[in-house]
Amino acid sequence: MTRNDFVQQMNTMLKLIRTEYGLTQDKMAAILGISKKTLVESEKGRRSLGWTEVVALATIFSQSQILQNAFGGEVSDIIGAIAFEDVEVQYPDTMGGKVWWRVVQEEGGYKIQQNIISQHYRLLNAEDQRMISSFDLAEVQEYLESLK
Q1: Residues 62 and 108 both lie in one domain
Q2: According to the model, what pLDDT value does residue 141 have?
Q3: Residue 7 CA to chain centroid, in angstroms?
Q4: How does pLDDT run across 1-37, given as a tens digit for each residue?
Q5: Torsional sign, CA 78, 84, 88, 93
Q6: Which domain does 123 fall in, by range?
Q7: What is the pLDDT, as a whole number, of residue 22?
Q8: Does residue 108 sit in the same domain as residue 55?
Q9: Is the pLDDT of residue 77 over 90?
Q10: Whose CA is closest to 84, among 49, 123, 112?
């Protein structure tokens, strides 16, 4: 999933999330820090929210069932995978992927998991700490090989 794919998908869910939370357009615009006109144009498909706006939307409404069902759990993981696509970072601990993840490969105390909804991958160490996230399995496997 590219940044543009994520932005487009979030744009399609904007109104659904607003109605899920029972918010008026005025309240939703205020929450997101955008004008009501921008919100209305975005909901009607005349304007696309930008990266920063969809990150705010996904973060503020991270408990949305619409978002969780669309992306397979915690949306921040996908945002991180997209934002850190070409950047090496040290990720915080995870819970090991009990719900939204399937194990693709296990080797030397490491496991590669794939999110069953969004299809992105991550590498966890023996303590279930995320080492890397990516939509490219080969990139994750290459990172695992570099750790040996």
Answers
A1: no
A2: 96
A3: 11
A4: 889 999 999 999 999 999 999 999 999 999 999 999 9
A5: negative
A6: 101-147
A7: 96
A8: no
A9: no
A10: 123
